[in-house]
């Protein structure tokens, strides 16, 4: 795969039903594709902290954590103003800290077997090798579209 700067990733998409994350260039061509694990209760849009759901909608990958407890991680801009307002109306905390990340530090040896079940708290999990590749290809500010 090309290194950061050699491919312009313009959009990241996630199909929750297919457990598929794709990186697309400005022409909509798929640059890379990954199988993922999601939140432990992935059906439906994230409503509140602790519901185990992965959000749905359009967000930004707005910052990255090189010292993540899950190898490396890219942060989604969830919750946005609409999510926060809806949660406030229900008297709930919308949750946050939704990331695309690798395996918990020390467990990278699990590799692709992690995809046998949805195990995150609402994040999007890939292998450590995959998150390194995603990290190198996706700049901060890249939009992500998450569909059911």
Give an overview of the whole structure.
The protein has 148 residues and is α+β, with helices and mostly antiparallel strands. It contains two helices and eight strands, in the order βββββαββαβ. It has helices spanning 81-90, 128-137, and strands at residues 9-15, 20-25, 30-35, 57-65, 73-76, 99-101, 124-125, 142-147. It has an eight-stranded mixed β-sheet, covered by helices on one side. It is globular. The two termini are 28 Å apart. The mean pLDDT is 93.
Question: What's the layout of helices and strands?
Answer:
Elements: E1 9-15, E2 20-25, E3 30-35, E4 57-65, E5 73-76, H1 81-90, E6 99-101, E7 124-125, H2 128-137, E8 142-147
Parallel strand pairs: 1-8, 6-7
Antiparallel strand pairs: 1-2, 2-3, 4-5, 4-8, 5-6
């Amino acid at each position: 795969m090309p290194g950061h700067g050699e491919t312009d990733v313009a959009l990241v998409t996630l199909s929750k039903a297919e457990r598929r994350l794709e990186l697309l260039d400005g022409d909509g061509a798929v640059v890379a594709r990954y199988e993922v694990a999601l939140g432990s209760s992935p059906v439906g849009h994230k409503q509140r902290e602790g519901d185990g759901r992965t959000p749905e909608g359009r967000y930004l990958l707005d910052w990255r954590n090189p010292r993540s407890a899950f190898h490396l991680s890219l942060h989604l801009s969830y919750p946005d103003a609409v999510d926060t307002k809806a949660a406030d109306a229900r008297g709930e905390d919308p949750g946050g800290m939704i990331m695309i990340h690798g395996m918990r530090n020390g467990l990278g040896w699990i590799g692709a077997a992690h995809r046998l079940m949805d195990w995150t708290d609402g994040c999007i999990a890939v292998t450590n090798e995959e998150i390194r590749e995603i990290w190198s290809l996706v700049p901060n500010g890249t939009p992500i579209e998450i569909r059911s």
